[in-house]
Amino acid sequence: MRDQTGRDATARALRGVGAAVPGLALVALAVGAAHMTAPLIGLSPLVVAVLLGAVAANLRLVPTVAGPGIRVAAKRLLRVGIVLLGFRLSLQDVVALGGPALAVVVTVVAVTFAGTRWMGRRMGVSPALSLLVATGFSICGASAIAAMDSVVEAEEEEVAFAIALVTLCGSLAIVLLPLLRPAMAMSDSAFGQFVGASVHDVAQVVATGATAGTTALEAAVVVKLTRVVLLAPLVTGMALAARRRGRPLPAGQARPPVIPLFVVGFLAAVGLRTSALVPDAWLIAIRAAEGMLLSAALFGLGAGVHLATLRGIGGRPLLLGVTSWILIAVASYAGVSLLT
User: How many domains does the chain have?
Assistant: First the structure.
């Protein structure tokens, strides 16, 4: 009897893998296209991937048979990508910032996150969308939104809208902040810290910081990656809150873990990077894999977007995104000015 049960479980697993193959093949093609196209149009591969997914879905280019594989990409591959994101950051980099600078980073993230959620409630934006916008603007753009989506019940259109908002504002920052720099009267290092504290996606931070030279770029990246490590406690906190509010589960169904396993993996990756046990060649390969996996996940999320539903979200979320962008810019400028 036990042997039969084991064989049945193996057969089900194999059928699941087989069902996912067509969708994963489509995802792989889309990821390749995103990474080839992104440098030509000046966008992050993550952004291009979610756009490709949305276009494919709305032009009805995604066959039904691809559904299981696309769902695997949007959920499972996303979590692996978030774990690998942890290899970007060493705790030594965080310590090197110093206490005052670290306090500024934490304060900026907290003010932006809490302030955006408060404004979302005042504007009548749905709690899930407000949470996604707050996470994306305060932490690290599309990656953070996707991570938070794995622990809250948000509609796919809300995820896509939040990613679109944070991408739009972050892309505008690449153009606007270098133009505003003369009026800010900041040193290269201070400008880099401001960029790292206020711009959303890692790629956008690199692009903006590089306009002011190597010193600004290095400062921007360290501050930005310090924001990234705050993703773990933020997602864990929201997961705990969701667990407390959760409805009674059907008999036999287990609750999700108190701390999502991908958050544990993220922290373990940060620890490994800090230990210096991972060779540089491996880190390069891990970073490439991270980019591919997150692109795959965002294509999967984009493929669940339907423009008719997206249009129904309305103008208030757009206003929330712009207001959140202004909030993090003002908080970051004030914090960095206090340090200098």
Answer: 1
